Records
---
Amino acid sequence: MNKLLVLSSIFLIAGCSDNVGDVSLGWFTTKDVKIEAIKDPKLNGVTCHISHIEGNLDLSDPSDMSIACRQTGEITATELALIDKSKNGEIVFKESKSILFKSLKIRRIYDQENQSLIYLSYSTKESSGSHHHSLSTVPLYKTAAWQSLQLSSKATNIKN
């Protein structure tokens, strides 16, 4: 039973992705640009598309990546209540990029003041003097979660 729990936890951290694009970088290279769609495991209404380089015969892939996240369905207050709201947020996707402990990670951070979700993709290993990263935001404006927050805020103001 414990093994099943551990395996399912690893699956949630790793995230689910679908390969939606594969672009060759030319005749004389073994590297391709991969484009993946990743659904947020806690917010069903958010999909992120990441692009990154993958070398078919290399032991390590480059650290460059790009991310774009969009609302692709309803985001509910119930789902929003389940996410980590700390300043560090939480990892929603992780993929190994080398045999030397380099990973591509996507972290979700909740910006309460601006009612937005921030998705940060980053490399865990320095490359060319930098930890490469990319950022995308998903506004909660007019989602079910946003409307619920507006109603609870109005109810709080009326009581005061």
Note: Residues 2-159 form one domain.
---
Amino acid sequence: MPIKSFQAARQKFVPKRRKSLLVRDYMTRDLITFTPQQSILEVMRILIRNKISGGPVLDDMSNLIGIISEADCIKHLSESKYFNQPFFDRKVAQSMSENPNTIEADKTIFDVATLFHKTNRRRLPVLEQGRLIGQISRQDVVKAALLLRSQRWGNK
């Protein structure tokens, strides 16, 4: 009697969906923003209270015009001491970094990683059709890489 081999009905092959690689999927959406008229003292208090190191500066029309960071505050603190000028009277517009590097929301985390490497920035505003929709940090990119590791590079 011949031997018959039995195989159950084969399941249809459905490839696993890969994790997204887009900036929009890893960025922070709820941002603390600043205005050019705010005082540096107020900015410093907000940075400390919220445990952040900087944030975007928006004009009255919600257009991105700069970034203010701890480094900007420290720079102007040292300059005011050197020139013997009051520091806390200074406004964000006088201290912020203008024309910041940005990245579009539809770029990949590899694009933003390259930009971080080239510019030595810690965070980048994320734009969609010219409007600020979020911010991505170096830490966000590292988190994304860890999530992708098991999907893309063979986690054993």
Note: Residues 13-18, 152-156 have pLDDT under 50 and may be disordered.
---
Amino acid sequence: MISQTAEYALRAIVFLADRNDRPCTNARLAEATQIPEGYLAKVMQILGRAELVFAQRGLKGGFTLAYDANDITVLEVVNAVDPVNRIHACPLGFHGVELCLLHQKLDDVARAAEETFGKTTIADILAVPRHRRPLCPFPFESPDS
């Protein structure tokens, strides 16, 4: 449904949101989220250009969220790096803008994903007991880390 790049961007954003505005270096973020460091650097550049994260250089530098986790939706993160592919015309060139039933159904799924992602904030993802976060196995830091 979403690309690996979008998955990586979401992991990074969720991890940063859980840090309560404490900066995180690219190396630490890569280690914690199990994302290749070079790939993550490119993803973070894109997120920075989309104004979803701030980057601060220096000894106490690192990445932080640009907004509160309540104000960032999953859709904003996904759209920043690799938007959901909607079908506006037949990808095979057969039907023009009139979609056949198959392509209409595929677009319906993409539209539903966009709607769900647009209603889901990063805070919503974190609003589960800590032992259930995230639903995939990358480590979160303890609150005092």
Note: Residues 4-83+121-130 form a domain with the Arc Repressor Mutant, subunit A fold (CATH 1.10.10.10).
